[in-house]
């Protein structure tokens, strides 16, 4: 999402767009990954020599439970405040890379299918959410 500095009105502007899944850099080999493009909405203002972008990001995230290994698919939301130093030669600011970095820093590395997930028995491998342990 490239924003021309000259397009930023005194009251700011609102922009929206998408970031493709491939651009985020997470794959099925990672602990979690996005399964649909990220939807981005931003309110952009200029304050003196700084462009501020208040962003809301939404996406669909897939992972496995850290306790029972069940597949999980959830909505993912993030709110970020980005700032860019600008001068008279700056023609535009690009939001995508900064948003991508914020997303990577805020994606959970460990997800549970539910708060009280009982996990898997280390002895017999039973999913303790669905069956009783067969160990003695």
Describe it:
- There is one protein chain.
- This protein is mainly beta.
- The chain has one domain.
- The chain contains two helices and seven strands.
- The strands form two sheets. Strands 2, 3, 4, 5 and 6 form a five-stranded antiparallel β-sheet that branches. Strands 1-7 form a two-stranded antiparallel sheet.
- Strand 5 and strand 6 form a beta hairpin.
- The protein starts with a strand and ends in a 30-residue tail after the last helix.
- The model has no long low-confidence stretch (mean pLDDT 92).
What's the helix and strand layout?
Blueprint: E1 2-4, E2 13-19, H1 21-24, E3 32-34, E4 38-47, E5 50-64, E6 71-85, E7 92-94, H2 96-106
Overall average residue pLDDT:
92
Weakly predicted, low-confidence segments: none
> For the CA atoms, what is the radius of gyration?
21 Å
Give helix and strand order, one letter per element, not per position.
Answer: EEHEEEEEH
Q: How can the largest sheet be summarized?
A: 5 strands, antiparallel
